[in-house]
Amino acid sequence: MEDCIFCKIIRREIPSEFLLETEDLVVFRDINPQAPVHLLIVPKVHIRSINELEENHAPLVGRLFLAAKEMAMREGINTSGYKLQFNVEKGGGQEVFHLHLHLIGGWKKR
Ligand code: 5GP
Ligand code: ZN
């Protein structure tokens, strides 16, 4: 996908620090964090949104969640708690139309 910003990040045409990179996904920090920890877990393959998921994507989707769990541990927010979120299409708040899982947390404990 020529003009997709996340494809450009994955191709390293836009500099971004990968906290994790595997064969099929990357993790980097959100440029406009909504919480102390706000990471994006992004498959390397360009899929527009959850609406475009197909049966053969099931293992990949599983690995997105496992990467989220791994990153929550590494960021030290696994026990305090966090949110995982997919925004789907404009009405669901999606702004970048390349599938990504938000990992959000790190709020102060009360
Ligand atoms: P969406 O609203 O599509 O679910 O989330 C897109 C997210 O990508 C937003 O939270 C936004 O801050 C983030 N974002 C947009 N452009 C960039 C970028 O160039 N680099 C990084 N690291 N994050 C971005
Ligand atoms: Zn893309």
From TrEMBL:
PROSITE patterns: HIT_1, HIT_2. InterPro entries: Histidine_triad_CS, Histidine_triad_HIT, HIT-like, HIT-like_sf. Pfam families: DcpS_C. One of its GO terms (molecular function) is catalytic activity. Residues 5-110 form the HIT domain. The active site is at H100. Transmembrane segments: none annotated. A motif (Histidine triad motif) lies at residues 98-102. Gene3D superfamilies: HIT-like. Coiled coil: none annotated. It comes from the Bacteria. This is Histidine triad nucleotide-binding protein. It comes from Desulfobotulus mexicanus.
